[in-house]
Amino acid sequence: MQFTPAKPTIYGETLDSLTAVLTAHGHPAFRARQILEWLYKKRVGTWDEMTNLSRPLRAWLAAQFELDPTSFVLTKQSEDVTDKLLLELGDRSLIETVIIRAPQLGVGQENSRKTICISTQVGCAMGCRFCASGLEGLKRNLSAGEIVHQLIQVCRQEDSRTPRAHAELVSFDNLVVMGMGEPLHNYDAIMRALTILNAEWGLAFGARRITLSTSGLVPRIKQLADEPLGIRLAISLHGATNEVREKIMPVNKAWPLEKLLPAVREFSDKHGRMVTLEFILIEEINDSLEQAEKLRDIAYDLHAHVNLIPYNTVEGLPWKRPSLTRQEKFANILFDGGVSVTLRREKGHAIDAACGQLRLKTEKAREAAAGSPV
Ligand code: SAH
Ligand code: SF4
Predict the structure, then answer these.
(1) Mean pLDDT estimate for the chain
(2) Same domain, yes or no: 95 and 130
(3) Is the same domain home to 58 and 28?
(4) Residue 117 — pLDDT band, cuts 50, 70, 90?
């Protein structure tokens, strides 16, 4: 499922593919590096700013490639902690990219750190019952260039706020693939995008500062373990037994815990680093003390870090987060069992911090304005 734009975006090209296109049309190979430098180091917004390229080459590039596959719609801010960028794609689909200025995700981060959360699909096919992104199914995959361009949009915003210490640096510290969509369901595009973001001719962003979150597509986790790109992995567990997980995550029917957990172990053995298990706490669904004990055993056994996330209410869904006392009791069972655990104190609740909610609201508003679905 893919949108085919009139022209491909240049942000989907690698050094090799761009060199190949250029040379096939009689342009010298060294132009590719010059173009990529304008895109990723200088982050220009128009072809005409690429002043060391000849006019005919700029005109040729403009005829071949789309320069801005996403356009900025609005930013929503929350207590100086989270910025959500709502972006529109060529087919008018909406996606979200989030800038988090607080230690909410991952292990051992400091206060000043900035984490960017990117989307990989419009909607999601996995149908997790608690999640806004999956409510209306999958609309389409994002292309590699659309994924990469989210970071360019973030860089442009951040570049205008905070002058860069070094012209070529990006002004964020961590990247999490945890926005809308199941990244491993759009495997080739996300791997190409991450390769571009990581490459020295791209954003030169370290693979170890990238975390990909998946609902648990086992064959793809195995494939990811064999990739040379050493990114971190997070698993959306949300249930410590098949019985509980299956009720809220249909993916558990195809890939139950007895298949998922060995694949996670294989990944962490190959990479020699801790995997994160994400566990949303939902009242009376998965917050029992038995679940905490089972989760403790799983995490201990896998030598995994556990990220407990109090549930963010989704309009139209009945789920709620447990009380703070209950959240802490749950966390303490893991902590006392010697498991590395963080309990996220969710500050973005006020601005629909869970994935997909801002987009859904805007789409509903559009539908209402147009009197029919867009
Ligand atoms: N599809 C991937 C990545 C995107 S979802 C995955 O499922 O891992 C990113 C994280 O947000 C997942 O852990 C997901 O379970 C969680 N999430 C979804 N809806 C949420 C909600 N309403 N409150 C809190 N976390 C939520
Ligand atoms: Fe998709 Fe992840 Fe939401 Fe599940 S939690 S529906 S996999 S985006």
Answers:
(1) 89
(2) yes
(3) yes
(4) very high
Report CA(55)–ligand 2 centroid distance (Å): 45
Q: What pTM was computed for the model?
A: 0.91
**Number of residues written out for the chain:** 374
The answer to whether 307 and 279 have CB atoms below 8 angstroms apart is yes
Rounded CA separation 120/122 (Å): 7
Lowest mean pLDDT among 83-87, 111-115, 264-268: 111-115
Pick from 178, 221, 282, 320 the residue to mutate for probing ligand 1's pocket: most ligand atoms within 8 Å of its CB: 178
Number of domains in the chain: 2
Residue with tokens 């029919």: 372
Ligand 1 touching residue 276 (CB < 6 A): no
Among the residues of the chain, which ranges form H helices? 15-24, 31-40, 55-64, 144-161, 187-198, 218-225, 242-248, 251-254, 257-271, 289-302, 324-336, 357-370
Closest ligand 1 atom to residue 182 Cα is 1
Residues within 6 Å of ligand 2 by CB: 124, 126, 128, 131, 133-134, 181-182, 215, 236, 355
Q: Give 94-108 pLDDT, tens digit per residue.
A: 999 988 876 544 444
